[in-house]
Design goal:
InterPro entries: Bactericidal_perm-incr_a/b_dom, BPI/LBP/Plunc, Lipid-bd_serum_glycop_C
Keywords: Antibiotic, Antimicrobial, Disulfide bond, Glycoprotein, Immunity, Innate immunity, Membrane, Secreted, Signal, Transmembrane, Transmembrane helix
Shape: elongated
Subcellular location: Secreted
Subunit structure: Monomer. Homodimer; disulfide-linked.
Order of helices and strands: HEHHEEEEEHE
Strand content: 35-45%
Radius of gyration: 20 Å
Pfam family, one: LBP_BPI_CETP_C
CATH superfamily: Bactericidal permeability-increasing protein, domain 2
Number of helices: 4
């Protein structure tokens, strides 16, 4: 149990419990809302890894041999429900995701290339600025990755590139989505 402060003047008090946060995460996971398909045209041009077999072939020469310079797609999804814990200073979360890569063939079918499982820990620190309520999201600790599928001899390089992409694009996207939101 947590004691809420006494109100001496009009204020808005917001309390979020782990039960509420984990229930919401469970509902989103069960509904399939924690999935996203990424195609090459969705990535910024400055992203260090373009979704083509020519670029990804650096990590797996066999991919480029089997499918020379073909477009690729990524299917990002949660493998299991995210776990959220509430602390006085922040919300902490454990994310269990996967990135499944497909080669888009000339007849528009997709051939599976590899599956990369990524586990990461994040923290969201709430902030109020003026009349805006928001949070700042950041990665904490190392993200771990495991790979299945085509032989990828350069797994460490691929893992590092994907972690860099998560840091460079995933965290800023999360920050733009969760803050700042106007408070009525």
């Amino acid at each position: 149990p947590m004691a809420l402060p006494a109100a001496h003047e009009p204020m808005l008090l917001l309390a979020v419990t782990e039960f509420v946060a984990n229930s919401a995460a469970s509902v989103y996971f069960a509904a399939g809302a924690l999935r996203r398909n990424i195609s090459g045209n969705m990535l910024p041009r400055r992203f260090p890894l373009q979704l083509r077999t020519k670029s990804v072939g650096v990590f797996s020469p066999q991919l480029q041999e089997h499918y020379p310079d073909q477009p690729m797609e990524l299917q990002l999804s949660a493998r299991r429900q995210p776990l959220i814990s509430c602390r006085p200073d922040a919300l902490h979360g454990a994310i269990f995701g996967s990135a499944e890569a497909f080669v888009v063939l000339p007849n528009a079918t997709r051939a599976p290339a590899f599956l990369l499982n990524i586990d990461a820990n994040v923290t969201a620190t709430p902030a109020i600025t003026g009349n805006r309520l928001g949070a700042t999201v950041r990665l904490i600790g190392p993200a771990r990755a495991r790979l299945r599928g085509l032989p990828v001899p350069q797994v460490k390089k691929l893992e590092t590139t994907l972690k860099f992409g998560l840091w460079l694009f995933g965290v800023p996207w999360a920050n733009s989505e969760c803050c700042p939101h106007p408070v009525p």
